[in-house]
Amino acid sequence: MSEEPELPEVLRCHVVAENADELRKFVRETDPDLGCRPVMRGGRTGVGAELYFRQDQLDRARSSRSAQLVDITTVENVTENWRARKEEVGDGDRFAARGAVPRGLGRKE
Amino acid sequence: MYLNVAEIESAITGLHEAYPEATEIITPPHATHEGRTARLLRVGARRDDGEAPGILLLGGVHAREWVPPDALVSLAADLLEARGSGTGLGYGSWSLTAAQVRKLMEGTDLFFFPCVNPDGRAFSQAASPMWRKNRRPAPAGSGGPSCVGVDLNRNFDFLWNHTAKFAPDADVHTSDRACDPQVYRGPAAASEPETRNVVWVLDNRPGIRWLVDVHSAVPVILHSWGSDQNQTGAPGDNFRNPGLDAVRGRPGDGIGEFIPEGDLRTAVGLAERMSDAVRAVRGADYGVEPAYGLYPTSGTSDDYAYSRHFTDPAAAKVFGYTIECGESFQPAYGEAEHVIREVSAALLALALHAPPDGDGD
């Protein structure tokens, strides 16, 4: 039986609006997690940002007044991804033994 | 495999023991709320006399961003091994010759602070995928899990009091609500031990001229300022001007944060060098942007570092950058390895091209 507490499903979404003001309107109404820094990038179809929503929050965001101003694409289920990534975290301490030195990923040439 | 918190600390110890002549362990004075000590590794072949230009590299400020600490440990290990064995160093089609590695190690101090927020990382890796903050205990009477923690990258003493220092409609990306799950700024500027440790390093290593805070993900390379749109024509319009407190941070209003033209040229030029190095690894286009994007920010490490010499003329000028690496907070480790190479190439490009006196002119 899993001991993991129930975690909300969090989804990373790529949200594109025609311009920054429309993107801001959508964010103001739906209050997503803006990620690390509130960065927007220009593209062919407007300006985009990576926004994070719980599933229930995303459902509400899709039916919000300002949803018509944006195009929302779900990119990743962050919670599901984390469950897999947890298996890729070091178990114990690989460098505890004297002389166990980490090596980098660069090519020494 | 991603490094856990214990492994980051023992990696620092192991690298120092293997390369004592080219490293120094630095222990900042403040233990975290859960009692951990987060250390730095200075990598540089000469004794630190404050004369060599220094670059402070931060990782793990935000707990859920798992790649940056691994990237900094990997880069430190790469540099030390390459110098020790007299080889060059390559990532994709970007590389340094053995002579460049030697010159860099003899002329520059690299201060690796791979995990500024170990309490948060431990919590994110064990229990909470989206945990961003440190683990400051919740205020008395506030019991929810979101009431724990402070966003360290909103806690630095730069326009920290956003409710007083920005226009009410600027929508600054920070919060004064202790239970904000992401961007609580803390009860006071530099209230957090992790923040004070970074400040302590800047205060005590005056050779530092560059700070790069490695985060994820977008990807993008950000330069100052984050508080408002940059402008080079009105020196009086700056973060110290209380006359702007009611209007600061609005987009497109013709009022911006002053940055000297030469500094802007230096900041952008070096960021482009970093972006070029990233592209040479496997073609990724990080691009370069001012940190002011969708919204302004306050209390960030990069703006704090760059603001210090304006606030205190005796302080050295420190250019501040944030690298938002990769596209995911926790990519599969095979992908993380590619991102680690991108970050490594970017940081070495900065070290290679940064002017020794911190100025570009």
Supply the number of helical segments of chain A: 3
Q: What shape does the CA trace of chain A take?
A: elongated
Based on CA atoms alone, the radius of gyration of chain B comes out at 19 Å
Largest sheet of chain B: 8 strands, mixed
Description:
The complex is a heterodimer of chains A (109) and B (361). By secondary structure, chain A is an alpha+beta fold. Chain A has a domain at 21-79. Chain A is built from 3 helices and 5 strands, in the order βαββαβαβ. Chain A has helices spanning 20-30, 55-62, 78-85; strands at 10-17, 41-43, 46-54, 70-77, 107-108. Chain A has a 4-stranded antiparallel beta sheet with strand order 2-3-1-4. In chain A, a hairpin with a 2-residue loop joins β2 (41-43) and β3 (46-54). The model of chain A has no long low-confidence stretch (mean pLDDT 93). With 361 residues, chain B is α/β, with parallel strands linked by helices. Chain B has a single domain (5-353), classed as Zn peptidases (Aminopeptidase, 3-Layer(aba) Sandwich). Chain B has helices spanning 5-18, 67-85, 98-107, 118-126, 162-165, 193-204, 261-282, 301-311, 333-353, and strands at residues 23-26, 40-43, 54-58, 89-91, 94-96, 109-113, 208-215, 220-223, 230-231, 257-258, 288-290, 319-324. In chain B, α2 packs across α9 (333-353). Chain B is globular. The mean pLDDT of chain B is 96. The interface between A and B is large, with 50 and 70 residues.
